[in-house]
Design a protein that fits this description.
Elements lengths: L2 H4 L5 H10 L4 H15 L3 H14 L4 H11 L12 H9 L1
């Protein structure tokens, strides 16, 4: 199944709009939509783990990492409830 056919139905109008309003081909537009949906489809736990790894690999230490993640969470497509530092640590370390 091609990526374009995955978007038949509700995303067809979005693909049409992207093809008309950008230099993207239909296949490229489908890939962009797929990537955006996957990005915003992350659970809170997946987001916290991914951001922790990214920030840690960038040289930040946990106090700064958890502060940054706390600030980023409300800006997700569907903002999760506020998580305490303890809850964030449990997501990362179990």
């Amino acid at each position: 199944m091609s990526q374009t056919s995955r978007f038949a139905g509700p995303h067809e109008e979005l693909l049409d709009h992207l093809v008309r309003s950008t230099p993207l081909s239909r296949g490229e537009a489908a890939r962009v939509v797929w990537d955006v949906l996957a990005y915003f489809g992350e659970t809170t736990e997946e987001f916290v783990r991914r951001r922790h790894r990214e920030l840690q690999s960038g040289g930040l230490r946990n106090p700064d990492i958890f502060q940054r993640i706390t600030a980023e969470l409300p800006h997700r497509a569907v903002a999760p409830p506020d998580l305490s530092l303890r809850q964030l640590r449990r997501v990362v370390y179990g």
